[in-house]
Design a protein that fits this description.
Blueprint lengths: L1 H29 L4 H27 L2 H26 L2 E2 L2 H22 L3 E2 L1 H23 L5 H7 L4 H33 L3 H13 L1 H12 L3 H26 L4 E2 L2 H23 L3 E2 L1 H23 L4 H35 L1
Antiparallel strand pairs: 1-4, 2-3
Helix pairs in contact: 1-2, 1-7, 2-3, 2-5, 2-7, 2-10, 3-8, 3-9, 3-10, 3-11, 3-12, 4-10, 4-11, 5-10, 7-8, 9-10, 12-13
Length: about 350
Amino acid sequence: MVYLLLVLGLMLLIYGADCLVKGAARLALSAGIPSLVVGLTVVAFGTSAPELAVSIGAAFSGETEMAIANVVGSNIFNVLFILGLAAIISPLVISKQLIKQDVPIMVAISALVFWLVSDGILSRIDAAILVVLLISYTSFLFIQGKKSPPETEDDDNMAAAPWWQNVLWVIAGFALLVIGAQLLVENAVAIAQSFGVSEAVIGLTIVAIGTSLPEVVTSLVATVKGQRDIAVGNVIGSNVFNLLAVLGVSGLIAPSGLTADAALINLDLPVMLGVALLCVPLFFTGAALSRLEGINFFVLYLVYTAYLISSAIQSGYQTPLGQVAAYVIIPLTAILVLSTLIWDLKQRRARSA
């Protein structure tokens, strides 16, 4: 029964996020907000809404480790699994705006969160800093979006529904998110306790993957339809909102802030920052993520998840897995990045010659 309720919670989260995005996007467009801003804010926030709902629910329930673990796990999953799988399906083209603006912002915020949580707690002051940055970032996107020409045809189609109908979509979306988050957190914790697994590990795996399903669907559908820039933008935007909105809001709500155990500080947060940094050279070279690089991302996620599960159940495989990662996977990744940089440099020299 616990597993059925867990699945039900995931389904409600996914459908609730879809309702929220649909209603909020139409309301925003009908109010004259540019479609670029809607895509970078409403859609990114909507696909991050499950993480927000779960982390707030965890903060209220006192499961503060899960609140941070959910965000960290989701951000790692978004980049390595979603972008990796999308690039395997079709090489991803990266826009100049993402390269010059959004990826550096994601890296900077990941580094800031790593520093704020390095003492084992995200205090209310830390959370307030993230919320202020969220407001500043959203305002910046709005001002930037105002400079872009409106896509009137798509906007008219999106805003065609009556305003009250869009308000109902938003209300229904929030309601489903709240119910789904409660079911997910309660039953995930119950499962963790029954297996003797920490709530942090559950947050990094089951909950993180479950709450990232909207990003999975959005990015893979965009890739199949040839809208590959959207696939990347959705992931980068969602990661930024996870760090600023999810951690910021849930950290303000939690009476004593959000806590992080030693494993989160020493392993998972560094992995999240490393994954963000890994995007920089791979995205900058050739403005594309190739199939080979996608396979590399995907393998990195499988090894990381296998290590987490092995450590949680104390199978004894974590030592060889750690050695494989340290002496095989990471060196191969470094070689791939270096070779890509060299190839890109040669291509640029050839074009300028």
